[in-house]
Design a protein that fits this description.
Structural class: alpha/beta
Mean pLDDT: 84
Number of helices: 4
Helix content: 10-25%
Order of helices and strands: HHHHEEEEEEEEEEEEEEEEEEE
Strand order of the largest sheet: 1-4-7-3-9-11-13-19-15-16
Radius of gyration: 25 Å
Number of strands: 19
C-alpha cells in the first residue's frame, strides 16, 4: 500500500529548512526573508487545504493533490520574495517632541504591541516629552499626538501593524522620555513584548498596564499620596522595585504561579492580598492590583 500518511508536515519542515539554508548562504537576501515572514499565513492555508482534501478525496489522491498545491504555493512565495519590486524594508525611525506649554499634569497613553518599550523621565528643559520609535520599514509609521486640552500624549501603532509577524518584532522599539516637572499618569496597552520602566524621577500618579506583556520591569519613584499600580490581562514576569521603606498593598486576583515580596515567597496561589505594617496609616504609599493571572510577581523595596 502507498504510505502517504503524515507526509505533509515533514515536507513543510523541509521547505522551511531549505528557506533558512538559502538565507544563510546568501541566496535569499534579508529583504526577501522579511517578505517571506509576512507571508506566514500561507502555512495556515496549506494546512486548511489539506484538511479539506482529506475529507473530500481518497487518502492517496488527497495527499498527492496537497503536495502539489504546497509545492506551487512555496515556489510562488519564493519567487515573490526574490523578484518583487523594492519596498522600504529595514528599520525606520519616528521622532517627536513638544513643549510643556501650560500643562500642569499629563497622561501617556501608549499602545504598541510586539515591541520593547522603554520609558524614563528626567530634565528635558521646556519639553513635555521626547519620543523615538524604531519600526520595520514595511510598516506605516506610528501615530504620535498630544491633546493639549487633556494633556494626553498618545503613541499608537498604525492599523496596518500585526503582532503576529514572524519577523520584525526585534526592530520594534519605543523609547519615551517624560519631563520630571509635572505629574504623570501612564497607561500602557497593546501587548508589548518587554516593558522597561525607569520611573524613579517621574511624579507618578498612576501606572496602568493592560493587554498582557511578556516581561514588565519597573523602577518606581518615592510615592506622593496613594500611587496606583494596576496590571491586568496577564504578565509572564512582573518586577517592581520601590524605594526603601516604601509602604505598599498588593492584591492579586486570577492566580499567580509565584509571588515574592522583599524576599518572602508565596507559591501556587489563587487570590492573594498582603500589605506592609504601616500601610494603613501611611500618607505616601503604593496600592498595587494585579489581575488576569501572572507567572511571577516580584516586589522589592530598597
Amino acid at each position: 500500500m502507498f504510505r502517504n500518511r503524515g507526509l505533509l508536515f515533514p515536507l513543510i519542515l523541509i521547505a522551511i529548512g531549505i528557506i533558512v539554508l538559502l538565507a544563510n548562504t546568501g541566496v535569499l537576501s534579508q529583504q526577501a526573508l522579511e517578505r517571506l515572514g509576512d507571508l506566514w499565513p500561507l502555512l495556515l492555508i496549506i494546512l486548511g487545504l489539506q484538511l479539506i482534501l482529506n475529507h473530500t478525496l481518497p487518502r492517496q489522491q488527497a495527499t498527492l493533490v496537497g503536495l502539489g498545491a504546497t509545492a506551487i504555493i512555496v515556489i510562488a512565495a519564493l519567487l515573490y520574495a526574490m523578484l518583487a519590486p523594492a519596498a522600504p524594508f529595514g528599520t525606520r525611525q519616528a521622532d517627536s517632541s513638544q513643549p510643556i506649554g501650560g500643562l500642569t499634569t499629563a497622561t501617556l497613553a501608549l499602545g504598541y504591541g510586539g515591541a520593547t518599550v522603554d520609558i524614563q523621565a528626567g530634565t528635558l528643559g521646556g519639553a513635555l516629552y521626547q519620543a523615538h520609535v524604531d519600526y520595520p520599514g514595511s510598516e506605516n509609521p506610528p501615530t504620535i499626538s498630544l491633546d493639549h486640552e487633556s494633556g494626553t500624549l498618545a503613541i499608537r501603532e498604525n492599523s496596518s501593524f500585526s503582532p503576529f509577524h514572524l519577523f520584525g518584532s526585534a526592530r520594534r522599539h519605543v523609547l519615551v522620555s517624560l519631563t520630571d516637572r509635572i505629574p504623570w499618569t501612564i497607561k500602557i496597552g497593546g501587548g508589548a513584548t518587554n516593558l522597561r520602566l525607569d520611573l524613579r524621577h517621574v511624579q507618578l500618579v498612576k501606572l496602568q498596564v493592560s493587554g498582557g506583556a511578556n516581561r514588565v520591569e519597573a523602577q518606581l519613584p518615592s510615592p506622593k499620596g496613594t500611587v496606583l499600580i494596576e496590571v491586568s490581562g496577564g504578565a509572564s514576569n512582573l518586577t517592581l522595585r520601590a524605594p526603601a521603606a516604601s509602604q505598599w498593598h498588593v492584591a492579586v486576583s486570577g492566580g499567580a504561579s509565584a509571588v515574592s515580596i522583599d524576599g518572602s515567597s508565596f507559591g501556587g496561589i489563587g487570590d492573594f492580598e498582603r500589605q506592609s505594617p504601616q500601610y494603613a496609616s501611611a500618607e505616601n504609599r503604593f496600592d498595587i492590583a494585579i489581575s488576569g493571572g501572572a507567572s511571577h510577581v516580584d516586589l522589592r523595596t530598597g
